[in-house]
Amino acid sequence: MASTIKEQQASVEQVKQVITDSIKHEILMYVGPTVKGLQRFSSFVGGYPKHFKEHLEQSPAFKKMFITPEKLTEFQNGLLDANSVESIFFKKTEEYFSEVK
Question: Which residue, of 26, 29, 51, 68, has the greatest Cβ tally within 10 A?
Answer without folding.
Answer: 29
